[in-house]
């Protein structure tokens, strides 16, 4: 498991232990990864986050066009695995959870413990600390070096 | 740990994680249909070493037209002590896909507007450029503040079919933003465009006063 916000780890760990989910990804509404468990390659996490955020965004927009409130959670049940996708509110803004589970658990259990995790996250979020300086003066040179390296030039 | 996404004022900012020292920037390629947005990403995907890029995701129609978005994550490495990642997105260009364009544009930290240099596509470019500004305004983003780069694509076509970069600057570049001539199919200007936009995005991040 990897969480870029340390306070996310205990609620997420509890959710993973109780729900027996195989893969879990927490992201912001625009698809920025907040925490993840079960992925084997870091950059694939970003693709999954982009797709999950895209589904939620399009579902929300569809609900707006249809003149109804948010359509809420989405779940897809496959032969071997299921996917549960849900937006939820946190003190740090709206996040999205993408959960993949197998036959060792069920959608009902995932939803039950997901609700607990959302409540735990709401209670665990600390006040946002002050931001420090982001980049040093020589960042332009480092950026150029990184881009040259990226493109092999 | 502050995670800086879109601010309350609607101004997007890259996601910055000070604990893990990570920066993630969302860069969007915008423009009319068939101007070369997906081609830009395909070229980048083909040139960047595998360990520095993720899977390129394309949600396209059967005719290979972008339906929702293309997505390509890039790992830039360490910049000033921060692990820096770019998320490159394209929007669908066709006029009738505005709903999905708006969704992809949400939270963008910078935009490449890809202009089709063909003279016969001038009105399509103009319509798309106006659409970009309308969609940004609807999302509360000040178009004058958002990092923007213009790419004049298809400059490899015969001169009698295209407008020159100077002519296109006159028509589109009233903000005097960086503009680059390109031939995305063969890679000319693709790297330079990404470099120009990423520089603007990170400079803006560096210039931002620390949050209180």
Walk me through the structure.
The complex is a heterodimer of chains A (153) and B (212). Chain A has 153 residues and is an alpha+beta fold. Chain A has 4 helices and 6 strands, in the order βαββαβββαα. Chain A has one domain: Beta-Lactamase, CATH 3.30.450.30. Chain A has a 6-stranded antiparallel β-sheet with strand order 1-3-2-6-5-4, with helices on both faces. In chain A, a hairpin with a 2-residue loop joins strand 5 and strand 6. The two termini of chain A are 36 Å apart. The model of chain A has no long low-confidence stretch (mean pLDDT 86). Chain B has a single domain, classed as Rossmann fold. Chain B contains 5 helices and 8 strands, in the order ββαβββαβαβαβα.
CATH topology label of chain B: Rossmann fold
The residue fraction in helices of chain A comes out at: 40-55%
Overall number of domains of chain A: 1
**Biggest interface, and residues per chain?**
A-B, 47 and 62 residues
Low-confidence spans of chain A: none
Q: What is the assembly state of the chains in this entry?
A: heterodimer
Counting structural domains of chain B, the number is: 1
Fourth-tier CATH superfamily name of chain B: P-loop containing nucleotide triphosphate hydrolases
The chain-level mean pLDDT of chain B equals 87
Which homologous superfamily in CATH is the superfamily of chain A?
Answer: Dynein light chain 2a, cytoplasmic
Output the number of helix runs of chain A: 4
CATH architecture of chain A: 2-Layer Sandwich
The arrangement of helices and strands of chain B along the chain is EEHEEEHEHEHEH
**How many strands, which pairing sense, and closed or not: the largest β-sheet of chain B?**
8 strands, mixed
CATH topology of chain A: Beta-Lactamase
Q: From N to C, what is the helix and strand string of chain A?
A: EHEEHEEEHH
CATH architecture descriptor text of chain B:
3-Layer(aba) Sandwich
């Amino acid at each position: 498991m990897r969480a870029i916000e340390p306070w996310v780890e205990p609620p997420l760990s509890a959710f993973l232990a109780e729900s027996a989910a195989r893969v879990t990804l927490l992201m912001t509404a625009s698809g920025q990864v907040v925490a993840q468990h079960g992925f084997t390659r870091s950059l694939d996490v970003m693709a999954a986050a982009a797709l999950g955020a895209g589904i939620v965004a399009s579902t929300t927009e569809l609900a707006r066009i249809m003149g109804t409130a948010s359509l809420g959670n989405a779940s897809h049940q496959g032969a071997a695995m299921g996917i549960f996708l849900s937006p939820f509110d946190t003190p740090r803004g709206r996040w999205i959870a993408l959960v993949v589970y197998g036959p060792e658990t069920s959608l009902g259990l995932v939803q039950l413990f997901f609700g607990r995790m959302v409540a735990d996250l709401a209670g665990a979020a600390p006040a946002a600390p002050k931001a420090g300086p982001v980049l040093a003066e020589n960042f332009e040179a480092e950026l150029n070096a990184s881009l040259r390296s990226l493109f092999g030039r | 740990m502050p995670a800086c996404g879109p601010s309350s004022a609607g101004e997007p900012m890259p996601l910055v994680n000070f604990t893990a020292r990570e920066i993630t920037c969302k860069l969007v390629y915008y423009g009319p249909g068939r101007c070369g947005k997906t081609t830009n990403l395909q070229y980048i995907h083909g040139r960047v070493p595998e360990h520095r890029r993720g899977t390129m995701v394309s949600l396209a129609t059967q005719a290979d037209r972008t339906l929702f978005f293309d997505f390509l994550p890039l790992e830039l490495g360490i910049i000033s002590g921060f692990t820096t990642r770019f998320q490159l997105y394209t929007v669908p260009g066709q006029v009738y896909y505005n709903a999905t364009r708006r969704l992809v544009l949400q939270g963008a930290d910078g935009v490449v507007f890809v202009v089709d240099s063909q003279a016969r596509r001038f009105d399509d470019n103009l319509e798309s450029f106006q659409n970009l500004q309308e969609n940004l305004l609807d999302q509360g983003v000040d178009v004058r503040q958002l990092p923007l780069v213009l790419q004049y694509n298809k400059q490899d076509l015969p001169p009698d079919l295209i407008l020159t970069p100077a002519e296109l600057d006159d028509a589109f570049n009233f903000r005097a933003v960086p503009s680059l001539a390109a031939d995305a199919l063969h890679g000319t200007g693709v790297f330079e465009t990404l470099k120009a936009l990423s520089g603007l995005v990170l400079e803006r991040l560096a210039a931002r006063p620390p949050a209180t």
